[in-house]
Prior knowledge:
Low-confidence stretches: 1-38, 305-327, 339-346, 351-359, 528-627
Largest sheet: 7 strands, antiparallel
Active site: 361
Radius of gyration: 23 Å
Family: Belongs to the gamma-glutamyltransferase family.
Helix content: 25-40%
Structural class: alpha+beta
Keywords: Acyltransferase, Hydrolase, Signal, Transferase
Function: Cleaves the gamma-glutamyl peptide bond of glutathione and glutathione conjugates.
Shape: globular
Number of strands: 19
Binding site for L-glutamate: 113, 379-381, 403, 419-420, 441
Bound molecules: 2-acetamido-2-deoxy-beta-D-glucopyranose
Strand order of the largest sheet: 1-2-10-11-3-4-7
Amino acid sequence: MAKYKPKPWLVCCFISAGLLCAVALVCLCVVSRTKADKDCPSGSFTRAAVAADSRQCSEIGSNILQQGGSAVDGAIAALLCTSVINPQSMGIGGGSIFTIRNKKGNVKVYNFRETVPKSFKTNLLDDCPTSVGLTTGSQWIGVPGELRAYEEVHKQYGKLPWAKLFEPTIKLAREGFPLPAHLGTLLQFPIVKGHVEKSSICDIFCNKNRTVLRTGENLTFLKLADTMETIAKQGAKAFYSGKIGQDLIQDIEAAGGTMTMEDLTSFQVRVEDAWTVSLGSTKMHLPPPPSGGPLLAFILKLMQEFPFNQNSLNVDQKIQIAVHLIQDSFINSINDRISSNLTHENSYYNNTKPSRDNVGTTHVSVLDEEGLAVSASSTINQVFGGGVYSPRTGIILNNELLDFCHRADTVRAGEQPPSSMTPVILESKSGGLFVIGGSGGSLITSAVALSMINHLWLGMNLKDAIAAPIVFVDSNNKVNFEPDFNKSVIKGLTTLGHKSGNWKFFLNVVNALEKENGCITAVSDVRKDGSSLSSPLLKSPLKFPFKSPLESPLEFPLGPPLESLFESPFKSLSKSFLKSHSQCDVLAACCKIPLNNTDTILSGVMGSKLTRQRSLDFETKVSKRRR
Ligand SMILES: *[C@@H]1O[C@H](CO)[C@@H](O)[C@H](O)[C@H]1NC(C)=O
Ligand SMILES: *[C@@H]1O[C@H](CO)[C@@H](O)[C@H](O)[C@H]1NC(C)=O
Ligand SMILES: *[C@@H]1O[C@H](CO)[C@@H](O)[C@H](O)[C@H]1NC(C)=O
Ligand SMILES: *[C@@H]1O[C@H](CO)[C@@H](O)[C@H](O)[C@H]1NC(C)=O
Ligand SMILES: *[C@@H]1O[C@H](CO)[C@@H](O)[C@H](O)[C@H]1NC(C)=O
Ligand SMILES: *[C@@H]1O[C@H](CO)[C@@H](O)[C@H](O)[C@H]1NC(C)=O
């Protein structure tokens, strides 16, 4: 029996079945700055917009833009705000990756993900947890890059004074605010509750009885407010070489950590050109390893190659050479691994060590009036990092080094752990811009890819594209379905032999902005707060002018054995079918074929073993170049 010819829905399965789990948090909201112009659909904007995790922080970012700030100013202000509104996701004790497109269209990546301190625990990887959960411990703390990078990008692209960006957050932190609902819910998850109550971050998130606070209770960050005030006045050096740094190091030492002042003073932001891949007539700019950018590009390119355009794959030459993952030959070799009728053990896919599932992170997308676009993902890794709190500074520390676990055999000082973060910027031939990224740990790449495919290729409006339920495969190769996922598809998958997982926390969150013909649509994921559905911003689907690969006619003849498995008429899926049906239906089509293979392949390919390899190769190249 001949191998299946690539089909769109097959590829779609790939995506959906794609990655592993995640626990992120937060979400929702959109805010934008200017009033809808008469020429723009209602709810869209003409000048600038911010899409952060929360309405509050989107608003703070927007206010900054309104006061004349640049997109970078807006992004920094929104992220600082997020560090108190969604303190479980990110903060100045963590790191980020920014992808920034300037007015002229040059795209740079500012990578300030945490690094391994000069001295770190011997046999660190022996401490790696063997099951999914939240991991505490000072040995996992990476050197925080957040503030140093804010300062660097602010110097380059900022328009408002540095201190201005901190003002709204200092006020929130000091005066307190009602504990947000999604944080309140998260704190009640037994796993999170236990994590918080037994760690020092309980100082912030617990009441006097050392019990986690509830939604609506007054949440304050008094110490952090002081710290931010000092940094606002003195700059990032207060953190990297001043009193705040010393206090922080003292607290880390007290918690048993090894980081030193020297680690802080020597932290450097890595600035590099974005990698660029072509997806039809659209260009996607992505951050290089150790980010999840290449994985996202891989998914989309694989998607595109399979179904949509046999002849027109148009890959930037440089990328082909540089990046194994997104090389055609590699993608072809993956295709070759796919049999239509059976699945294989992990070893067949060289997926000997599936990566551990991962959690956390936030994303913000910002576009300003002058055309500066910022796609920024930021994280302290797991929910509340490793639960290490610095009482002298009010900073919650990351546990980023945990990302080496099950992905690395060794750890070197100065190295950055691999990441799923994938803040990208797309541009269409006609000048349209699409700024997108997400949170949710290992779930980021699949959630972002699905949102993009739903929107750009399947014609769903941006809001629906992001809101569509997802399916993902965890590191045990269990298939997990987001609530409301189409039941008949679940049944179909089970029939094919998939084992359902039991994942409860679909906290994947995607935030995106799109500008076309002078109109901006901003969508923040509504997963955590359906009330933002009422936002008028979400009500106006805008057609993005990217050429859909579905423009070409499609015929999807199914082989008899598979066809007979299902009742619905997938024999002649057409473009109009795809366009008029929800993602679930498309997935249903996908799922008629052996997802068995595709998920395994994906967790193999996506498995960070490979990413990690790429990232090491990359770092070797970079350090050679630097010498
Ligand atoms: C599965 O497909 C392969 C070719 O891809 C074929 O050699 C094999 O016989 C098929 N197995 C079954 C059980 O149909
Ligand atoms: C919250 O706590 C802060 C700091 O103690 C206090 O100033 C503020 O009044 C409180 N807000 C409310 C609503 O209780
Ligand atoms: C703390 O515990 C005491 C005794 O159980 C109880 O009376 C009090 O209401 C609790 N306080 C809070 C804030 O839960
Ligand atoms: C999927 O894999 C399971 C075992 O992992 C196997 O029993 C089942 O037959 C496979 N289904 C298909 C359609 O290949
Ligand atoms: C799997 O690994 C083996 C040995 O390292 C290698 O020869 C083979 O090409 C790999 N296969 C794939 C699909 O990468
Ligand atoms: C679920 O998928 C099946 C098969 O594609 C389709 O017939 C059905 O309408 C879908 N249900 C919903 C609620 O979308």
